[in-house]
Each structure stands twice: as structure tokens, then as C-alpha cells.
User: What shape does this take?
Amino acid sequence: MTNTAATSEAKLATEPPKIVWNEGKRRFETEDHEAFIEYKMRNNGKVMDLVHTYVPSSKRGLGLASHLCVAAFEHASSHSISVIPSCSYVSETFLPRNPSWKPLVHSEVFKSSI
Assistant: This one.
């Protein structure tokens, strides 16, 4: 491992990564644009469908996917938007580990998963 890679990993371990909203690309992403969670807006902008999460193999295991989800859910919460967790990471990993976000899940999705 190079010193640069070790420094990057140490930085991620000590402080949360900065996640930015890229409205034009309809995604939340890391500052370097390498990791992201994509969404589609539905129901006239009242529902955010999280469709895909991507973290490059070189950055996996650092919690980036979870940070991306938190950014998307915080955005949805602050804008009174509900969420459809179409991405398997969101529905099968993030939400079970973070049940406090489940109230934001779009009611039609929540009812069908009971």
C-alpha cells in the first residue's frame, strides 16, 4: 500500500467523508465523484427512488455506502420526501442496520414488504 492510499484510508477512518448532492446527475457522491448513490424522482418530486449504489473496489469496506445512504435519507427528510429503496444495498443492508430511517420509506413499499 502506498503512503497516499494509507493516508486516504486513515482519513476516512477518522472523519466522515464529505458527501455532496449532484442534482444534475441525480445522485449523492463523494467529493472525488468515485462513490455514489443514484436516484430517480417520482410522484412529481414527492418520492426519491434510490436505484443504485456504487463504491469502487479500492474503497469498499470503509462505510462509504452507508454514508451515501445517510446523505440521501437526510436530504429526503429535510425536504419532506419519501424514499423507495429499489437498490438492494439500501433495502437489504442499510435499512435493516439503520431502522430509524424506515419511517421515510414510501408507504406503498412499506406495506408490500410486511
Summary: The helical segments are 3-14, 64-78, 88-97, 107-112.
